[in-house]
Every structure is written in C-alpha cells, then in structure tokens.
Amino acid sequence: MEVAGRRPHAIRLFVVFTLLLLFTTVHSFYLPGVAPQDFFKGDLLKVKVNKLTSVKTQLPYSYYSLPYCKPEKILDSAENLGEVLRGDRIENSPYVFKMREPQMCNVVCRITLNAKDAKEFKEKIDDDYRVNMILDNLPLVVPYKRPDLDAWIYQHGFAVGFKGVYTGKPDEKYFINNHLTFTVKYHKDEETDAARIVGFEVKPFSVKHAYEGKWNDKTRLSTCDPHAKRTVTSSESPQEVEDKKEIIFTYDVEFQESEVKWACRWDTYLYMADDQIHWFSIVNSLMIVLFLSGMVAMIMLRTLYRDISKYNQLETQEEAQEETGWKLVHGDVFRPPMNSDLLCVYVGTGVQFLGMILVTMIFAALGFLSPSNRGGLMTAMLLLWVFMGLFAGYASARLYKMFKGTEWKKITLQTAFMFPGILFAIFFVLNALIWGEESSGAVPFGTMFALVLLWFGISVPLVFVGSYVGFRKPAIEDPVKTNKIPRQIPEQAWYMNSVFSILIGGILPFGAVFIELFFILTSIWLHQFYYIFGFLFLVFIILIVTCAEITIVLCYFQLCSEDYLWWWRSYLTSGSSALYLFLYAAFYFFTKLNITKPVSGVLYFGYMLIGSYAFFVLTGTIGFYACFWFTRLIYSSVKID
C-alpha cells in the first residue's frame, strides 16, 4: 500500500520537475509579473540592445550589424526558443546609467565613417529601420500624442535616422540620430527608499557635435555641455551620414518619479485606443451565430422532429416507398469515403491544432503569456503542439478503425509526418531566403536541430502512443447498416453543387473572425503589441460555434437532396474559410503594408500560407466533428427495417 501511495506523489514530482525544466531560463524560474527588481540610488542600470526592425522589409538585423558604439565585450542574453524564432538578438550595450542620478551629455564613442559604413546606415534609413533597446525587461519607446485622441501613444524603438534637405539646396541628405535623451520612470517605495522601473522612453536627436582642438578623452563638446548646462533640444544642425564624416554618439538620462505601480507598468504599452471596434467585432460575430443557431434549431425542432415522427409511423408498404429526403440514403450515409486514410490524418492533425490553440488561449487569457516574457507565446505554442500529438494519434486511429482500417502504424506515421513535414519544408525555404539576406531573423542551425529533435523525439512517439490507445479501443459502431451496393446519387440542383456549397460555407466562419484578424496581422507585421486575449478567446469560441453550425445546416440540405458523400464535404465546407483568410491577407498586404523588397513579399505570403493552411486544418476538423455528431444523432433516432 505504501508503494502505491508513493507513486502518484512521484509522478507529480516528475511532472513539476519537467515543467520547471521547460520554462526555466538560464538564470531562474520566472513568471512574468511576479519578479520585480528593486533599485536603490546609485545602483547600476544596464541597457540592453535588441534587433533593428523595419515594417518595410520585415527582416530584423542585429544591433551591431551597424557600426554603432560597442562595449568591450559583446555578450548575448539568455534566450528561449520563441525569442530565437522571432529573430530577437538581445545583447549588452555601452549605455550604463546609475539609478536616480541624472546624466547630461555623456559621450559614448566617436567614429569616422568609411564608404561601407555610410552605405549601410543609408540603406537602413531608407528602409525605416528602428533601434530597439531594453531596460529592466521594458522595451524602449518614443512617446507621441495622437491629434485625434487626448492620449499618448508609444512607438517601439527610435528611428536609425531620417532624410531631409538643406534650405536652398535640392539634394536629399541622410541624417543619423546620434544623441538620445532617455527618460527612466520609477515608482518609489516611501518606506525603504527602493525604486522600481516603470517606464523607459527616449527622444532621439541628430546633432553635429562641435569641439575645440584635437579629440581626446577629456574633450568638452560645445554643442552639448553639462558644465554650461547646455542641452540638445532640437536637431538644428543635424549629423550628416557620408564617407569620412565624424560622428559622436552622446546621451542624456533623466529620472522621473511616477504614480504607476510596478504591476501596472505594461498597461501604457498595451493601451488600446480603439477597443470599441473589438466589441463591434464580437457583436457582429454573435449576430452570425444567432442567425445560424436559429437555423439549426429550426432544422432540429421542426424538420427533424416532423421527419422522424413521420418515418416512425409509416404503416404500409406504399408509404414506405414514398419516402423522400435524408432517410432514403440511410444505407449509404456511413459508407467510408474515398481517400479515407487522408481524412483520418487531417482530422487527427486538426484535433492536435485545436488542443494547442485552446490551451494557449486559456493560458494567455489568464496572463501567463504576457508580452514581458518575450518569446513565451511562441515557446508555449511549440511545446503544446508537440504534446498534443497524443490526441492527434488517438483521433486519427479511432476514425481509421471505424473505416475498417487495419494498418494503424501506416496511419500513425502519416499523422506524425504529413502536416509538420509540409510546414517544415515551407519554413526551411523561407529561412534560406532570410539567411541569404544575412538577417538575424534566420533561425540558426542549432535551433533547427532542436526543432527537429522536438518533432522526432517527443511528438512522433506521442502520436504513436495515442494511436496505439485509440486502435485498442472497440470500433465506433454505425447507427445504421451500410448497403453492399452504393445507391445512385440523383442530379443535384446548381446551388447544391459541391464546389458552390463548399465556398459558401467558408464565408460565415471567416466573417466571424475577420475584424480580429486585422488586429492580429497588425501586431505581427507592424510590430505592435497584441494582448487582448480575452477578446480573442471569445472570438475563437464564436468561430468554433459558427464552423459547427454552418456545416450542420449545409450537411442537412445535402442529405435531403439524397447526396450521401458528406465526409469530405463537411471538412471542406468550414475549412474553405482558410481560402478567404489568405485572400484577406493578400488584400492587407497591398492596402496596409509598404513592403517593397521581393524577398520580404515572399516571406509575407509564405508565412500567411502556413497560417492559412493551419486555419484550414483547424476549421475543417471542427466542421467534420459537428457533422459526424449530427448524422449519428439523426440516423440513430429513426426506426429502420
């Protein structure tokens, strides 16, 4: 008895230990929002630099890919898998502050540009690249006031530079932001005098610094002098970017006490100026759901109730011969479809996807995947996908056995390799393109190997375990017997044509999510924070209900017109919403994005193709299971001789 009692405890310990291993970074176990850091006056504050980003090219670059001032030794910060996949490269910087000790006009370094350096700076300015920095896990922002709103909006990072013309001269010149005025906001504890950082802002300036005599470590600048209390307030005489030009990088730091508490410091970053539109989106989606629910209820109550009671009261042979509608095809409705193996694989993959997204959403809505935990969302999704392989194997094996299949290992291998294999192939091609551009967004070989290891080492064995369990269970029994000879399907009306009804079926699920889709695309491609998982979770539930209901309605109409080939049709009906998603992504590309590089365009459409394919598998599976439940329900309710 003692051993039996210890076993659950041991299992619990093992599970906790595994989770700790998965989510612990190199330093310590950290849940975002739980580990504040206290700083006393004079404590060192080390600014870290992140990637350079551009909404024009979508190709991130390492900060030190440009000839900026470097510290003595460049150190990489600890990263998780999600950070590497996002292209984050967090490194130390020569910017070091002392807590609550303002500094004015600190010289970081002085460089003289050569032709290559000048060309690189000009290219980055042309492509609107922005420099990202981090202090105490807070990203650097540039505040600006929106004229239409009485509120401050924050833009991530500061621009590398800008283009302009001198008065009276037609030639366009390039200028670099070489002076940074940092503002560190802190919330002070009155009792202990400790402070916590709650904001990190910057105002960038371009200044052609001047000094007298020859340059040495003690040279005083005349354009920016702490002794004369002369500060940089505007880019009056900006610093030009040209070959042989000298650039002096400087910064000021000021500290501001803030009423914002540490727990609320992300609120300003996540401020939503237009949350009204999310409510509008949800109301719009709910109207679609109500309309469909009404149709389903009508079918279930009026038609089915009438039909079933009529079928069950048939007395004479003459009446039996006059049967019409869905009952006529009872002998064929559960006949296994063509390519039933492929259907099993797609259904299994869809279950895996559904499980991953559902669990991710719940964790995100509860606040576990906050944006302060960079890469946390992607890491969580990857790990959940891997572990959900168990359910993929189980679902595909159960369906396969129902179709009288015997080679369960074959179906298991297809489930484990088909969808991830296609995704990995597209991802590999896109990664090769990013490598070609020498961008930090390229996934290193070591990370690629880790991904393959997760796939082959954990996901594939779990799919096998799920399949084994699923295939050992007794097969799902059909509610009615299947005839030996297939019944001929009568000619269908034009509106019951399979292609037409499949394309119609995808419109409503897409309509339920497309407003939220706009915000998701904006967050991915315009580098804005997306943290309204509460809204997203609601929209996702609405999507599930819409997919289920539209498939049931169209499946019922199909069976009424004596067409019993519903298996694939039910999957494709709701799955066709992915086609509209891809078309909308193309519309978004041409109307909202300023992408000019061909490589960036290929990347955009490559990633959106992966997203649309995943959406197809997810929505198709929801539609399939809804229709599967519906057909079993109606055919088990009637008496069949």
UniProtKB/TrEMBL annotation:
Subcellular location: Endosome membrane; Golgi apparatus membrane
Coiled coil residues, start to end: none
Keyword Aminoacyl-tRNA synthetase: no
Primary location recorded for the protein, binned into one broad class: membrane
Signal peptide: 1-28
Topology with respect to the bilayer: Multi-pass membrane protein
Keyword hit for Signal: yes
Entry's transmembrane regions: 279-301, 343-369, 375-395, 416-436, 448-471, 492-525, 531-559, 571-590, 602-630
Swiss-Prot/TrEMBL keywords: Endosome, Golgi apparatus, Membrane, Signal, Transmembrane, Transmembrane helix
Family of this protein: Belongs to the nonaspanin (TM9SF) (TC 9.A.2) family.
Annotated protein name in UniProt: Transmembrane 9 superfamily member
Source species of the chain: Penstemon davidsonii
